[in-house]
Amino acid sequence: MKHSLLLMAFIAISSITLSQTAEKPNILFIVFDDMNDWVEGFDGHPQTITPNIFEIEQEGVTFLSAYCPSPICAPSRTTLLSGKDCAYTKIDRLDEYNEFFRENFTAANGNEFIVTLPEHFRENGYYTYTIGKIFHGAERDGDYDKTNNSNPCIKENSWNKKLYVKDAGSIKDIPNECAPSFKVASIADSLEPLLQDTRSADSAAAFLKRFSLGTQNTCGEPFFLALGIKMPHIDILIPDHYFLDYYNNDYYAQPFEYPYNRPVDTFPYNGVVMPPQPDTLWGDYYNLGPVAQNIARQHKVHQNVLNKAESLIENFGVVVDSALSDSERIILLEETLRGNSVLGYLAAIRFADYHVGRVLDSLRMFPDVYNNTIIVLVSDHGFSLGEKTHWLKSALWETDIRVPLVIKDPRKPGGLVCNKPVGLVDIFPTLCDMVEIEYPTFPDSSRYLDGESFATLIENPQANWEKPALTTIRSFFDEQGSCYPNYSVRSDRFHYIRWRSNGDGEDLTCNDSLSYFEEELYEVGINREVDPNEWNNLINDPDYKIVKEYLQQFIPDSALYLQQPYSITIIPEDNTCYHRSTEQIPFSVNLLNPEGNILDTLPEGLQVIWWTSLDENEMTGLSTSLSIPADTAAGVNEQDFIIYVALYDTTHTVMYAYDMIPYTVYDDKTKYPSFKSKTIDKRVFLKNVDFPENTKSAKITYGDGHIQYLTNIISSDLYQYRHLYADYGTYTVVITAQLDIDSNICTVSDSIIINLGEFIHVELRLNPNPVKDEIFVSVSGPQNSYVASVYNSAGIKMSEQQVAAPNETDNLQFNTSSFMPGCYFVKITGEDVNETQSFIKIE
């Protein structure tokens, strides 16, 4: 009886455990090798074919601005899987990586404590299974515990089970059809079952089927299946049917078949679309500094393409077109070799997508399992195909560091897109949050993970996220850029790159004292709408100095390294389209703390500082009114400038957040409503009413609470608009026009002050204001005799003119060239008339 009770208790406990396990989602973690943004949904290439990845995008969240921690396999995967930045792992170049993973972390390196993503999940109730390349060096080690092969449920390190397969047969011996160091070949379709990714996908699909049928032992736990897809990593040996029809593997055929789109803007396409080039071919390369140029050409593919093109002409008798010179044929062959390489890369991506689709289809056959499985699709880094003469990887431009990232959580809405700049280092804490696993810590219980969870972005892709993505690399060739880390810091809008030379630029020996920095800064744009190809380096533009100063704070050993910063956004205080140069322009900020909470008051020890690109005068506070300098505004109809705001500490040394917006002031009268007025007793009459271009509606505010709305916008010289006031007094009449400027609805206005009383009223206008050498005075009113006088601020009369019985309007001119800078007044006097307005005299 005692044994029966114990058995029943054990069964009950086991049932509870299995029930709890069933509620925890499985994880399918797919890592591509060297896949850039040439994926449907990422708009990297218009001819890419990836329907299976795109289908997951429709069910999950697509991260359009995901960046690798390092643009080379070993450093990037180490950070992705350990949750530690390169500064901790000490792995930022390929040749210094030990393929026996744990041997990279030692007391001598100061990084002896390490926890991996699959290890942490295995220790928290997951069965972890790796197929293919997840860790670099997966074939030899892959962080798999080989000490106890009898029971997968008691394994240590990262995996309960490991499988690594390679291409079968003699696939690797197939000859290269493209340039040296960039092997591409179209192979027989019959060889597809022998390829590594085919075999890995077979194994993954079989595992998922067995798990779904209940015949796979996963130690009673949900699975964490990590599938490494080799493609599109070179060598690219892909079955023929994955290639677009433009691929040319016969350089002797006549007529010669060009594989690339020519001319480049031809549509429909007659060949593969090549990576874009600036107006001057390779001009972006020639604008780089010597360290960056060395990084660009380090794989030597660009030169190898030229060499092979010359060899095909000179040594193998390739004709191309007999009407052309040798130099012309070489140019065409160069582009042909590049075009074939692009076609090979696209074929490899299509091939990878197809086999991922097979794995996903095997999971969809069991809806209960599919709908309880989180799917992560990601690449270890990007890949270049000739941009800036650069091929392959290991550089810091957008082509190398941007990666596709898609996360599908069946419990969350799908079809969402996020533009926030997340890093692969952030995936570890994000997955922990998604399955409610606590983060790992150091032995002293301090924070271990360097990344920040972006789980909130899966719920809401527009949630606050200001942390830039950091990327680190050292050249793994003993050339410039190999001694010291080179850094990229990518925000949602800007990309800052800092290269460092080995020494003086001539000697490759590492020398701290002679080493120098090269910097690049690109405004890529939040939606890649400004400079997506990184052709316009802004590093020496003073208007963008603040961007560099802010982003370089996220480099290791700097003030904001690994931190989620504050967020500050400039908010116009009104809906005005633009202002005049003489007006105060009101602005405030939307300030959020690192947790994303709105702050109504400044935290202690912080200050908000405002300034413009026109001068160095600073203002402080959460709100301000800005104006441009009077000497800048004088006589200018249009002035462009930039408004800056930054959140600093009180010593002005750490910038916790910043924002900058372009702004334009206009003194062009045609951009504002304009009108004249006449008053009789308690009535006002408005005439010569004009509205600016793009006016959709308008209103007249008479200053006594009455508002006249105008939907039929008519400019008129007649006294069309009138109003009767209840009482005498001074009123401000304002005409406001609502404009539609590029679908942005905003307003502009003009105003006149009128005085109503038992005396004659005149209208007084001064132009320009501020003034240098002369001012024009417009006097409007009933026929009468007036005196126009100019006084300084001390009340001394400077000039005077008679206005003899004007017929509604008289225009006067005063010479102010001899006036000292300061404030002056124009006074109109006459029988029952006394009107005054001020103006400013400037140098």
Structural write-up:
There is one protein chain. By secondary structure, the protein is α+β, with helices and mostly antiparallel strands. Among the domains are: 24-236 and 348-462, Alkaline Phosphatase, subunit A (3-Layer(aba) Sandwich); 566-667, Sandwich (Immunoglobulin-like); 760-843, Sandwich (Immunoglobulin-like), CATH 2.60.40.1930. The protein has 16 helices and 38 strands. The strands form 10 sheets. Strands 1, 2, 3, 4, 6, 8, 11, 12 and 13 form a 9-stranded mixed sheet that branches. A hairpin with a 2-residue loop joins strand 25 and strand 26. Helix 6 (196-213) packs parallel to helix 10 (326-364) and helix 9 packs across helix 10 (326-364). The chain is elongated, with a radius of gyration of 35 Å. The N and C termini lie far apart (107 Å). Mean pLDDT is 92; it is low at 1-22.
